[in-house]
Specification:
Radius of gyration: 27 Å
Helix content: 10-25%
Largest sheet: 10 strands, antiparallel
Distance between the termini: 72 Å
Shape: globular
Structural class: alpha+beta
Low-confidence stretches: 105-132, 748-756
Number of strands: 52
């Protein structure tokens, strides 16, 4: 390993340029205060682009020499200090101690490769299948009290400090366990938090990267990429919400989802026939359990060929989907990237003729094996391939499908080393070692862009298993093949929270578990937890017990029904948070530290969370529990179910009967709710009611629009204050609305603008006052 050193530094056109005989570097500040540090060796990497980050808006830069080296100053950014030999950087709480490179070896170009192939040769591979001449590692000083969050979906607890994490999209051979790493997605981003101060680090490299967070050495961490460049973004805080907002702006915020996506979904691998699908839909409606979407897993296809329907099991998909939609049920179908290599199969034959597929190291069409048998894999790095693949989705839209589910897109390959494509497979000028982590990202991009173009009047819905930083621009995420186990219920919480910290606000885990056998208590508890996931889908795998709500007896069915109905009552709150995510990148589900960074007790709290800022949820994670410890941060909190008022900054014992989940409302919050329904229709909330946790001042808002499409939305607000034993409530938007006061005795009505019933107030004019 060589320690990188530079000989000189200068500023040209708002960019600092560092040079030496072997390495070059560029450093600049963006207008949002983010520093970018790019180091490279090969001449072809001079103009390295990004799959995720849009063009930088550069800030003015000033270079000064001081006793410790060089200092870069920019408007709106903390100063960045540079040492040239060895190369180190310091900015805010971030302090690197060196950047090292493996010894570089340029290998002769093979004659059978095109002239535009990379300058290193895959014949000279290392033992792990990656080309020689790769590998850069930065080390940073590591304070003992620092915690780390992010890295996308990860097993284990909330704080990722003390372990080594690998970014290499992987479909594990078995259900993921608490120590399994890596998984399906790669998010080379971490948020550091220490004594209330936070910063973010994004390594914009699609090659395999490794984050050693104080694991090998307690006093330092390291960030490694197998690639030939080191492209680092340093994101300032100090507030973690600011870090997340800046990071989301850097890699992209999500679009507004359709309202139905926030409803309840049912899936199984597989519902084998259209008769089964109709029976499931009828049963949901007959039992009064809300349902917005049914999902079709791989058995809807003809011999697992994508963009087909089985002519015997799904002979008339257009009629089926039309009947479901008439009953308020949407349909989503799975699409895998593997294309069956079969004569007469139009998708394959056209792709073959048009050269749409990944090629092997001998420049032949690569062949793998997935569900349909021998398969070819589209090369989504090419714009023409993304356009071709996207165009194939017209078939699905023509029959009435509402969403697409991208699976097996790590890409997963059966009976292959690493369970994926060989690292020296070719994607045009690139090898799979560089492209692997963005394969699912680019597949989802292709799907999203097609749905956007073909249905201008509707919002696309795409769910993906694999992804990379920025995947939220194109798809929602679920955490993959979990199991029907209490441990997996509990582990889903930090997995979804860290996805949210990674700027992926719309995610969920399979409610009830995908593998093994669920029981009634587990499904009841998991459904109550799932009622707060951004994405709520019951999904079970082949060979497991049936997992629909009515499969576990009447008591558990009643609990599941009530949990789902409560989800539908909360849809105005969910929808308002979804709109906020499009503007800020902030997740719907949030770890407590995001709003309470000065409270170290929140840093490791993985089994309770916030929905937005105002609801604190404490699910039951063990069988037989009827109460649990809940930590309430500083402030005032109200039990949602009883109205009991608590002073925060301490732990309490909360009742947790099977029939409900411990749930608390922050003092001063106003939670918009509506009536439950069998399915979603419009996001014009009628009726609208506000659950208010009163204190000196209180405020809430709700976002409304048509629930789909591009028509502009509007916002209603409720505000109030208490002065001299008198409460004043003001509201905007349509009236009447119902206000439910937590923890209040029946008010004494002081004017004719309201009517009252217990702790409920019906507002009939824009402003109203009453005596507390």
């Amino acid at each position: 390993m060589d320690l990188i050193r530079f000989d000189a530094v200068s500023v040209i056109d708002r960019v600092a340029h560092l040079s030496s005989s072997r390495f070059q570097a560029r450093i600049h500040a963006r207008a949002d205060g983010i520093w970018r540090v790019l180091v490279w060796h090969r001449i072809e990497d001079t103009d390295k682009g990004s799959w995720t980050v849009s063009a930088d808006d550069l800030a003015n830069l000033l270079l000064k020499e001081d006793a410790a080296g060089w200092r870069l100053s920019a408007d709106g950014a903390d100063d960045l200090c540079i040492s040239l030999a060895p190369f180190t950087i310091t900015v805010g709480e971030f302090a690197s101690t060196g950047l090292t490179a493996q010894r570089w070896k340029e290998l002769p170009r093979r004659k059978d490769l095109p002239n535009n192939a990379p300058s290193w040769d895959p014949v000279g591979e290392t033992n792990d299948g990656l080309p020689l001449g790769c590998g850069l590692t930065m080390e940073i000083a590591e304070p003992a009290g620092r915690s780390y969050f992010g890295l996308g979906e990860r097993t284990g607890f909330l704080d990722k400090k003390g372990k080594t994490w690998t970014n290499w999209n992987t479909d594990p051979a078995s259900r993921h366990s608490e120590n399994m790493d890596p998984l399906y997605q790669s998010h080379p981003f971490v948020m550091a938090l220490d004594n209330g101060k936070s910063f973010g680090l994004y390594l914009d490299e699609t090659w395999r990267t490794v984050f050693d967070l104080g694991s090998t050495h307690a006093d330092r961490s390291s960030f490694h990429t197998d690639g030939p460049t080191f492209d680092l973004y340093l994101i300032p805080g100090p507030d973690p919400l600011d870090v997340l907002r800046r990071y989301a702006a850097l890699v992209g915020r999500p679009p507004m989802p359709p309202l139905w996506a926030l409803g309840y979904h049912q899936c199984r691998w597989s519902y084998p026939t259209d008769t089964t699908i109709r029976a499931i839909a009828r049963e949901y409606r007959r039992r009064g359990i809300p349902l917005d979407a049914l999902w079709l897993d791989i058995d809807y296809m003809d011999a697992y060929k994508v963009f087909t329907f089985s002519p015997t099991r799904f002979p008339d998909p257009e009629k089926l989907l039309r009947e479901l939609k008439e009953d308020g049920i949407r349909t989503v179908a799975i699409v895998d990237p593997g294309v069956k290599k079969e004569a007469g199969y139009e998708v394959y034959e056209n792709g073959h003729v048009l050269d749409m597929f990944v090629r092997n190291s001998r420049d032949e069409e690569l062949e793998g094996e997935v569900w349909p048998g021998k398969t070819a894999f589209p090369d989504f790095t090419k714009e023409k391939v993304r356009g071709w693949w996207g165009g194939l989705h017209r078939l699905y839209l023509d029959v009435g499908l509402d969403g697409i589910w991208n699976d097996m897109n790590e890409p997963a390959v059966f009976q292959s080393p690493g369970h994926t494509l060989p690292t020296n497979s070719r994607h045009g000028e690139r090898y799979h070692a560089e492209v692997h982590n963005i394969y699912g990202y680019l597949m989802s991009r292709s799907t999203f862009e097609a749905l956007s173009a073909f249905r201008l009047e509707r919002r696309p819905f795409v769910l993906t298993r694999a992804g990379f930083a920025g995947i939220q621009k194109y798809a929602w995420v679920w955490t993959g093949d979990n199991a029907s186990a209490w441990e997996h219920l509990e582990m889903s919480i930090p997995m979804i929270l860290n996805l949210g910290i990674s700027a992926v606000p719309f995610s969920g885990a399979d409610v009830g578990g995908f593998g093994e056998h669920c029981d009634g208590e587990l499904l009841a508890r998991w459904t109550w937890l799932g009622a707060f996931y951004p994405f709520m889908r019951n999904h079970a795998g082949k060979g497991s017990r049936r997992q629909e709500p009515w499969e576990f007896g009447s008591r558990h069915e009643d609990v599941v029904r009530d949990a789902i109905r409560f989800r539908y009552r909360l849809l105005p709150f969910f929808y308002t948070l979804a709109e906020e995510a499009t503007r800020t990148g902030w997740p719907l589900l949030r770890p407590l530290f995001l709003h309470y960074p000065d409270d170290p007790k929140t840093y490791t709290m993985h089994d309770q969370f916030l929905l937005g800022r105002d609801l604190l949820v404490a699910p039951v994670t063990r069988p037989g529990q009827v109460e649990r410890m809940v930590y309430l941060p500083l402030g005032t909190w109200f039990d949602f179910w009883t109205g009991h008022r608590y002073d925060g900054g301490c732990s309490i014992i909360a009742a947790a009967p099977l029939e409900r989940i411990p749930l608390f409302v922050r003092g001063g919050a106003c939670i918009p709710m509506t009536a439950s329904a069998d399915h979603t229709s419009t996001a014009r909330w009628d009726p609208l009611e506000w659950v208010v946790a009163p204190q000196e001042t209180f405020e809430g808002s709700v976002f409304e629009d048509e629930g789909d499409g591009n028509m502009p939305g509007s916002r209603r607000t409720l505000r109030g204050r208490i002065e001299d034993s008198t409460m004043t409530i003001e509201t905007t938007g349509a009236l009447p609305v119902k206000v439910i006061l937590l923890g209040s005795k029946p008010p004494e009505v002081s004017d004719a603008q309201i009517s009252e019933r217990g702790s409920e107030i019906i507002l009939t004019k824009p402003a109203s006052s009453w005596k507390a």
